[in-house]
Amino acid sequence: MKVELINYTKNPVEAIEKAASTCYDSQPTGGKIMKHCYKSGHHSVLEFADFTFKISGVSRALTHQLVRHRMASYAQRSQRYCEEDGFEFVTPASIAKNETASKRYNEVIESIKQAYSELIDMGIKAEDARMLLPNACCSEICVKMNLREFIHFCNERLCACAQWEIRELAKKMAEEVYRVEPALGEYLVPKCEAHAPYCFCTESKSRSCGRHPLISEYFGKETVRK
Ligand SMILES: Cc1cc2nc3c(=O)[nH]c(=O)nc-3n(C[C@H](O)[C@H](O)[C@H](O)COP(=O)(O)OP(=O)(O)OC[C@H]3O[C@@H](n4cnc5c(N)ncnc54)[C@H](O)[C@@H]3O)c2cc1C
Asked: With contact defined as beta carbons under 8 Å apart, do 188 and 152 qualify?
């Protein structure tokens, strides 16, 4: 998996605070206004900073989950216009470390590759031959999110309940943003830490990773809506 931050709003905190200052007839404060807006739920001002990522070496299973995030813009490698002869594919660690599973997995991928090439050689269009392609087939996608959506994406996809591949992606995307603006790091966290220092898990007991107490343990059973 490769993740590159290819474009972004320079000085994102300042860009957000300049916009927010309009509401308060104030001046940028180096992060204080932004923190206040975040904590008070005035999240629309976070839309004034954008981040564009180029992502490659990920599975179509991952990109299908990614594009469910609707408040973002996407451009993805087309399986209609690009032929996928000899496609790259993702192998989950659970399969890679199991010799028998790995052998079976690779056999099926090889057989799909072979059948795909045969259909293309018969003159079948890529848009039809692609019906054979597996979820594991690698893809490339560009995504642009504003900070509001990116925080939401990180809250959901850095959570231990998210699937491993998209969790890895969210981590790499957050690292890229942190590299250019460390002040944003505290917002790019799983949802259990979105209200830090009040950290609690909203998942069920069976799904919770145990990193933070369940919401019912944190606030007491009687305060949690059934
Ligand atoms: C652990 C996990 C498991 C999942 N499992 C499944 C599954 O089994 N099946 C499945 O189908 N999906 C599943 N999803 C996907 C999930 O249901 C969402 O589609 C995805 O996380 C996108 O999030 P979102 O809808 O909150 O926000 P986004 O699309 O990222 O939008 C951001 C926010 O904008 C607002 N918004 C966006 N669109 C609208 C709208 N039309 N109306 C009102 N408000 C809007 C909402 O406040 C939303 O939270 C899963 C996601 C996670 C994280």
From this structure: no
DSSP 201: B
Counting atoms of ligand 1 from 1, which one is nearest the CA of 156?
Answer: 53
Same domain, 6 and 63: yes
Amino acid 18 reads K
Instruction: Render pLDDT for 72-124 as a digit per residue (tens, 0 to 9).
Output: 999 999 999 999 999 999 999 999 999 999 999 999 999 999 999 999 999 99
Give domain status of residue 184, yes or no. Answer: yes
Rounded to 5°, angle at Cα 136 from 209 and 166: 30
| Residue of 68, 157, 179, 211 with catalytic role | 157
Q: pLDDT for 147-181, tens place per residue? A: 999 999 999 999 999 999 999 999 999 999 999 99
CB atoms within 10 A of CB 28: 18
Give how many domains the chain has, as a whole number. 3
Cα 28 from Cα 16, distance rounded (Å): 9
| Residue span of the structural domain in which 99 resides | 93-132
Model pTM?
Answer: 0.95
What is the rounded CA–CA span in Å between residue 114 and residue 112? 5
The span from the CA of 63 to the CA of 67, in Å, is 6
60 is catalytic: no
From 71, 165, 169, give the residue whose CB has the most ligand 1 atoms within 8 Å, as the site to mutate: 71
